Amino acid sequence: MLRAFAPVPVVELSSKERIQAIFASRDKLYVGLASGALKVYSVPPSTGSSFAPSASPPVPAKLVTTIDQFTKRAVEQLAVLEEARVLVALSDGYVHLYDLDTYALQERLHRTKGAFVMATSSDLEFDKPFVALSSDGSLPNPSAADVQGTVSRLVVSARKKLHCYEWQGAELIGSREISIPERPRSLTFIRPDKILCGLVVEYFLVDISASTVSSVFAAGRPVGPLNGAIAGVAANIGDITSSASASARRQGCALAALLPEDDSVLLVNEFSSAFLSAETGGFIKTKKPIKWKDVPAMLGYTYPYVISVAANSRRLEVRNPKTCTLLEAINFPTLAHLHDGKYPFVASSRQVWQLSIKSFEEQVRILVDQNQLDEAISLAEGLDDVFISDRTEMLRKLKMMKAEELYMRMKFQQSMMMFSEVSAPPERVLALYPAVIAGDAAGKDDVDGERAEMNSHKEAESEPDGNGTSDIAPVNGNDKSNGDAASVASTNPDAQRQKDVEFFDRFLRPSILSSAKPPGGGNGVVAKYTSSSADTMSVADSLANFLSIGKNSKVAPPSEVGSVSDFGGPESLDGKALNKAVRCLLIYLIDTRRKIARLASVESGTITKEDLALVSTEKMTAGTFGADLSKEATVVDTALLRCYMLINPQLVGPLVRLANHCDKDVVRQQLLSHGKWSELVDFYYTKKLHRDALELLKELAESRQALELSGPEPIVEYLQKLGHEHLNLVFEFAMGPIRMDEQYGIDIFMANTPEAESLSRTAVVKYLGGISRSLTIKYLEHLVFSLGDLSPDFHNELAVAYLEDIKTNAQLYSLDDDMLQRPLDKLLRLLRESRQYRPERILSVIPRDSSLLLEAKAILFSRIGEHKRALEIYVFNMKDYGKAQEYCMNVYDTDAPNNKTVFHTLLELYLRPPGIRVTLSNRMPPSRRSSNSSSMYNLSASPPPPPPPPSSSSGFQLQKSPSSSSLSSMPSYEVPAMNLDAALDLLSNHGSRVSAIDALELLPSDIKMTALGPFLEAHLRTTTASVTRDRLFASLLKTELVRTQQALVDLRSRNVVISDTRVCPVCVKRLGSSVISVFPNRTVVHYGCAKQYRETLKQ
């Protein structure tokens, strides 16, 4: 049993003296005698205070002074108001106030006649419960500001009234009386202005500030809630003791003690007990009541324990207020008085014992040595950091030891939740599991080492006696102890079960697996060929389906999981138990995975505010899981993979498709052994092991070992996920699928994905050019028309590819065949719509004798501004006059050079055609030549011949071509006949765009006027419209001029009168002879005020 207190006799009186009351305050012990005398002893705080535990022997109390005539009769109760410097004594039915320094009587409170019990409190004790010790071990004195503003209270029960007195600092500021239904036998402050009164079998609460009384406990049953009677003051620890008179303690009464740790009040009435919330006033149903073996006669609280004295007045019991466990029972010869709080003392009629508390670290070690881990954890949790060095780390180790104990007791769920709560190292947790789960971490258990470490600091302790109690030898040597064995209470199962469920739900909902997504999407690389149920199920849903633990959970039979002998685990862990243990392990692994990810984000500096708050709340540091977070993450993720493979392999898919730290070799071995080919490919993609994944897919495609991954489709889908940094891999593994079907090349390089668009387009064009021209053309069309790439190289390459395709098809198909016409139409479309290609580059590629590409050459000549050469092709080679006019219309409305003279050029070609070099072509076989392509024309850059002399019939003479013999050796020039009909049609349709003078000069002199009627009529109409428009515009300008002149005259005719009395509306000063500004509204201001007035008008 724990030895928390060491009772040391500090005061022993003679046989003629009898102790009637004791009270301790700071370094003084006040003892009131039955004779009315007062003895004051000096007790150092370092030995008498529970806030200063020490292993050194306590210093005996030193008698400071004795006042024989302190009161006329016995001193029934003592109290000290430290801030008011007042010593309070209850004697002969009255309350007496004494000076705390001189012990001189200040006042006898006559209104307290018939006083039965009293209690004191101080705001300073509630607001500052923890006091740090000075360097010499003494308690520091409160500051003057604290003392001056502190309100101290004294409450006295006299008959059926409560007399309340208040001091602020050392000044008595007021008193009041509160009527109560019955005279209380005990008083306990639970707030500075609220006091709990205990009767024989019931309680009532008194609000001093509001002067209200409310019932709390009647006939052993709670009556709350208390209408808000208790509210609003923070929990605290002060020297506030439950006060009861000596006669009340002998007769028995309802007792109470404030427990500041959880802000509750312990109510005790004979063998019954209950806990009341000091904050809300309601009863705490989750805390089980204390089972008393003997009726407590006195009750108190000394941090951090509840102490009580049994009704036989011989045994002091020490209990943990959280677990209600009896930790220590100390037998005394007899006990009549108890003083709790910071300075615990007990006393008999002639002797006073000081309860010197042991070091809290030592107490924890004793509890661990006795295998009372629950009590050790409860004690460490309730203590403040000032009492135990590195309390957080000690508590963490204790909980890990408790978690291991729970695991050994087959309570896997509670064990894993406790491991997760303290962020235990993964290796320590996995060491409890067989190698099939833990891998290399199996069997590494250091719990014995921790126990040895904690016990290595333990000092030599005397063992308690056989019945579990320690006896205190009386001064006269008579031993009358009859201690009982201590009972150890268990924790509340309902509360623990509820806590477990809440903790379990908290871990399952926020899964770390949903916080990251792989590049290129989160559905996996080969999702099309994987199981749909595994891909569509989220991790949270999967856990909800497969991790249900309870009475209704379905555990796989041992045949599916494996026996213990297979795994090398503990002999007591069979297949069913191992399945449950692994499912519970997921609770720890998932939460640890989340925490490691947050810590890694902190180290990398990419953490968000939410993550930072989470890390701060859980008090994790970089060393919580070790120095190498990457290694710990690998251990956790690999163990998580093994767990999934053991209980349900379908859960592996979401794990390997998202960012993870699983060991590559373990994953490969596990997935290959279970035939999880798709999951292995996804894992390779997540880990950026693309060559391994592609080689695996290539092997599976050839072996057809996995039907869902057979064929080139999985390889193509994987390549679609790779970007520019893996271009070499794409080129290497795309060759096979493309040679099988060019559509795979379209899927890889022309997919509408960021990865496909990131590939180097120049490299892809070069790569496809060595495989297939048709695929190259499709890719270039995708770049130019779909993506709108403006690179001239791609436009040139596409035009050249079209020309090569036309050249190849021209040798195989006729002119009207679709296989030849389709690339020709594409080429013309490109040349018309694109502005990025280089015309000179394409002209150099077009064959000189090709009749198929005449229109293409005309478009190219247009691009370089050679409109005349383009029109010569339309007029003389193609003889398509409609396209010639359409060409002129398109050029005329643009900003191209010489765009306004293009119609004149066409007219000149009609009426004065230049010399044409004619070459008969016999390169094309007759079978491939169309009916209208018997000869081909090639335009030369030679200047046209001089105009021929006019003749009587046409005005022009046609030059004859040389003989056929000279045609084969040199080119001949031929002047075509004048095309008068086409010229007249041009003038009729577009005569307004041609100068009439130039047109008449070109027309032959013998042309009839009727032929020129439409042209002249249109030209006159256009000229007349232009003249009319100019006249109208001139008239409008004259009107505007007259209006402006009239406005000027009106403005000049305006005037203002400046008199001697006229003032400026801005500065309210006379205008006088100052420079002024006149506004259109005839307002006159100073010139300097004009800007301000202008701003006023704008507003």
UniProtKB/TrEMBL annotation:
Q: Cite the record's Basic and acidic residues compositional bias ranges.
A: 445-461
Q: Which GO terms describe its cellular component?
A: endomembrane system; fungal-type vacuole membrane
Annotated segments matching region Disordered: 445-495, 920-971
The biased composition feature labelled Pro residues covers 942-951
Q: Where in the cell is it found?
A: Endomembrane system
Q: Which residues form the CNH domain?
A: 16-345
Q: Does the keyword DNA repair apply?
A: no
Membrane topology according to the record: Peripheral membrane protein
Sorted alphabetically, which Pfam families does this protein's record hold?
CNH, Vps39_1, zf-Vps39_C
Q: Which UniProt keywords are present, listed alphabetically?
A: Membrane
Give me the CHCR repeat coordinates as residue ranges: 752-915
Q: Where is the composition biased (Low complexity)?
A: 920-941, 952-971
Any one biological process term the GO annotation gives: endosomal vesicle fusion
List the PROSITE patterns. Answer: CHCR, CNH
Q: Which family does it belong to?
A: Belongs to the VAM6/VPS39 family.
Protein's UniProt name:
CNH domain-containing protein
Please name the source species.
Answer: Lipomyces tetrasporus
